[in-house]
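### Sample
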Amino acid sequence: MNSITTPTYAVHFNEKAYVALNKHLAKANYSKIFVLVDENTHNCCLPIFMSKIEGEYDFEIIEIEEGEINKNITTCTQVWEVLSELDADRKSAMINLGGGVVTDLGGFVASCFKRGIDFINVPTTLLSMVDASVGGKTGVDLGPLKNQVGVINQPQIVVVDTDYLNTLDQRQLNSGYAEMLKHGLISNASYWETLKGNTSFDNLDEYILTSVSIKNEVVQQDPTEQHLRKILNYGHTLGHAVESYFLESEEHDLLLHGEAIAIGMILEGYLSFKLTGLSKNALEDIKATFLGRYKKISFGQKDIDTILGLLKFDKKNSHGNINFVLLKSIGEPAIDIKVAPELLEQAFAYYAE
């Protein structure tokens, strides 16, 4: 797999990635290297990662609790305190070995500590490989509200080793696959058709490369999400609200990110049918594809009211307006679309049909 280059760093794959990483570490001469993990990646991924390192370095392992519920400022403070206690300086570096929680939080911690130290991302979930590996978004949640605090800051290098996918269960793989399906919906109808027909996770290396390339092309044109990059948020306006609601609800089990975004893509597919010209056949295709992969969730009116109330916190909002990314057709998005409240209720009714 060929590396993907951005203006400031590269995403490297599999064994080539470790060659590039070892060259970088040898050249950088870091005073200390901190490896951020959660409980799962500490046990399942850290031994693999350390076996690939050539040379002698001063490594310190920092472990955080796993899960989106721990992606917050409190965890950041704990990591900053450990960095201070272990004498990290501005020539130290942080390697974030984990899924999106670890790479998002670790990138933010590194970006703020002593006004910024180098960080390297080693995504270990399918979701983080195709989503967090490109774009430089770092940050944490504010309570249940997704990604409210953060900065855009680029890593030094990204290591994508698809062998880490062997540590994941089917549910985690499906969560990441939702973001890949999104890449087809917003940019490439042929890719959408290919992915939706792949029910056994075959050819994942090839598809990961395609998804990372799609995201990289978008981000290079709009690094700070002023215009085009917004298309990557298809399904995320309502999907993030659903995810946030399930994070704080005592009556429902947690949803993984991809599971919530899959719901969001059906809901926003309906809005696209009503507002931006998406055909009925395309809408039904989107709904059937996601409900064929992801468990259907039952929403009561109280659930819906609370979820819609969370939309005011979406990061794309401006001047009091909630802005949606919708689809004109599969592969053709439209940005900054305003939606009447009654259509949002209708979208949930369509999902429930």
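The mean pLDDT is 95. This sample (3-dehydroquinate synthase) is used throughout the tutorial notebook.
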